[in-house]
Structure formats: C-alpha cells, structure tokens
Amino acid sequence: MKRGTVKKCKVCGYKTSRSTCQYCTRKAQMISHNFLEKFSKSQFTPRICKIIANEEYINKPSMDNLFLYGPSYTGKTISACKHLLGHAARDYIEQTHRTFLFVKVSELLDYFRKAMNPDTATKLSRELLQNIDCLVLDDLGTEKVTDWVYEQLFLILDYRYEHLKQTIITSNYDLEELANKYSDTRITSRIEHAYTLLKMK
User: How far is it, in rounded angstroms, from Cα 85 to Cα 59?
Assistant: First the structure.
C-alpha cells in the first residue's frame, strides 16, 4: 500500500492509512494484557505470576517443540511459561481456540499414584495431556523413576510426537543424562529428533 493511501481499519472500519487504527491497536494491547494476567493466574503458581508480571510477555513464541535444559535457577521454567503465554496471546488474537496447560511432571505423577482408581485416573489424565494443543512439562527427570512412571511419560510424549502436538519441556538434565537416568532412549530419541534444544546458563 502506498504511503498516504486511506482504507478502512480491519477491526472497527474507521478510515486510516494503516491496516488497523491506533485506537484498535491500543485496545487490543490492553485486552491482551488483561487476558494474559488472568491466564497466568489460572496456570501458574503465585511465585511465577509475580516474576512474569515484572517482565515483558513473549509476543512471538517459537513454533518449534522446545527442550530447555540446564542447572537450577537458570530461568528454564520462566522461559517456558513465557512461551506458553505467547501462544495463548496469539490464540486470543486469532481466536483459534487452542488448549494450553502447564504441569510439573512430579505433581502429575503424584496425582496418578494417589488417585482412588489409579487405572481410570491415569487413563483420563494421559488422554488429556496427549491432546492438549500446547503443553509445558516442567522438571522432567526429577520424578522417581519406575517402569510404570517411565511408561506413562513415554505414552504421553510418543502420542504428542506422532500427532505433531506442540510441547515444551524443561529439565535439569541433558539428553544423555536423562537416557542414563531412565536406562532407556525412547523418550530422549524423540526429543532429539523433534525438539529444538536450548541450554540455559
């Protein structure tokens, strides 16, 4: 479009030389901020919400699967949460009605163990995690490893791998350390081939 050409704003119809007028842009930013604040409170702990509130949201999150790894206190969890927020903001603007979830691996597995009906609860929870559009699995590798635990994790990650579901994983371990911890490479091989690996320092 040539400079000075007047057309209607795509949002409100007001005549402007831009694709959207300044009023609609500011309004969208305000609504987006309010939405993300509510989204954060529904997904994250108060500690994470407080940290994120003092930082800028990520507006253009990576569309790749991400594996964020490194020592404790390097910002892995906060980075993953900001990516999830970025995806939620994009969904809010584009109205694609995707689903999002942040969950700590240890808490998830603890729920599995303590459920009154373990078989049913595990199946329902696993199906939910398999089909969430954008899932954050926080602290992979901190859980106590048993054959049953590993199988639950593998079923979730393998399904998401095969169905191209976006996943963000954080871990204190690199892939070699995880493979040694699990004494198996099925999970780590899928991460290696389908994820962008980001070492946090």
Answer: 8
- Residue 140's SS3 state is coil
Residues 28 and 73 in one domain: no
pTM above 0.90? no
Does 153 lie in the same domain as 163? yes
> Is pLDDT above 90 for 163?
yes
Instruction: Return d(Cα 95, Cα 73) in angstroms, integer.
Output: 35
Task: Write out the residue range of the structural domain in which residue 64 sits.
Answer: 45-199
Q: Which of 198, 196, 174 is nearest to 65 (CA)?
A: 196
Q: Which residues on neighbouring strands pair with residue 169, listed in sequence order?
A: 67, 137
Element (H, E) at 91: helix 76-94
> 186 CB contacts (<8 Å, ≥6 apart)?
154, 158
- Reference 105, options 63, 62, 76, 64; nearest CA is 76
Res. 113 pLDDT band, cuts 50 70 90:
confident
| CA count, 13 A, side-chain hemisphere, 9 | 12
